[in-house]
Specification:
about 280 residues; alpha+beta; 9-stranded antiparallel β-sheet; 1 helix
Amino acid sequence: MTKRRAQRAFTLVELVMVIALAGVVAVMISTVLSRPLEGLLAQSQRSELVDLAASALNRIARDIRLAVPNSVRVQGSNMDMLNVLDAGRYRPNRVGGDSLRFASGSDPSCSASGSDCSAFQVLSSSVSLAGARWLVLYNIGAESGGAPVAGNNVWAYANPGVISPTGTTFASSALAGQETLITLNNYGTDFRFALASPERRFYLADQVVGYRCSGNQLLRYTRNDLTPAFTGNAEVLVDKLSACSFNYVPGTPQRAGLVTLRLAMTINGETLELLQQVHVDNAP
């Protein structure tokens, strides 16, 4: 007689017990791992926030350091400045004077090459003029009651003043002795700078660079005029802002100016705030 082989299988009770034990083990594992996973997610979000905010702050700081002295201004949640294209040292273009004055034609009192009264000489063999819109000389950034003083601040044009008229164009030609002759055009019939630079330093500016806190966005914009409006061709630097502020202390003859930048950013309930201060050398 053939013997039947014994058949083995799980009983329903054993299967229920296995399922219950597996559930208990899964709950224990999830409880143990949940906090590290949440911490890793939070750390990843904070790293993203720091990277975004730090990149924006460094971009702003770079523009501030490239600004014409005493041209940084803050109005509420907006900040703008005049960007330096090139700079150098000049020779006075009038006999017996230390500043610059421009008029059409030539005259013996004009000391530039060829007695050209619409030109001045630069102590450099190369000057970048591509895109230049303004010539700035000894901008002291004077204000009265918070408003720029005409003729002593680039944001308040006057003749005489510290910045050439908007619309002025520039041309250059090489001279002997590693110097360059810069000729001004389209500035009107006559323009002169109100002040002479003690170090005979000049700046060529090409555009206004500005920043605006708008909703949850930080915008960087550029424009080609000196109007007080905070508008222009804008690009979004960051779009996760929860707070944003600019503060500017112009400084004194004894110490540099100081810009304080504050950005707070939020992702999925995680908020991080960064603060950066930028020293501004306002020696004109």
